[in-house]
Write a structure and sequence with these properties.
two-stranded antiparallel ribbon; two-stranded parallel ribbon; 8% strand; 36% helix
């Protein structure tokens, strides 16, 4: 497989990089997994229509949310137990979010303390 380009391709590669315990945790959902299935179905419904012959040499993804300027319209949602996937866990995620100017919300089930991530 070439470089993954979407979430489903990353998911297919996960067994090569994660322990079976981490894989089981990340692949599961709460209770009867209704929300997990609904979320996946919602992602599968997203359709992007490419616009051909449009000049994209100058683009601006910036936006403003509650008077806060954001260079990109991305928010990293809270994700628990990130150290299952990477020893740096939330620290690495926070660095990556800061690098591109995204907002990161730290989980109450974080594997790193708030003081270290902030």
């Amino acid at each position: 497989m070439n470089q993954p380009i979407n979430l489903f391709e990353y998911e297919a590669l996960a067994p090569q990089y994660l322990s079976s315990m981490a894989l089981d945790y990340y692949a599961s959902g709460a209770w009867d997994e209704v929300t997990l299935r609904d979320n996946r179905a919602a992602f599968e419904q997203i359709k992007l229509r490419p616009r051909m012959l449009v000049d994209v040499s100058q683009r601006d993804l910036s936006t403003q949310i509650l008077d806060q300027f954001l260079p990109i319209p991305i928010l990293v949602a809270p994700m628990a137990f990130q150290c299952l996937a990477n020893p740096e866990g939330e620290l690495a995620t926070a660095r990556a979010a800061a690098e591109v100017g995204a907002i990161m919300v730290l989980s109450t089930m974080s594997t790193k303390p708030l003081e270290a991530v902030a």
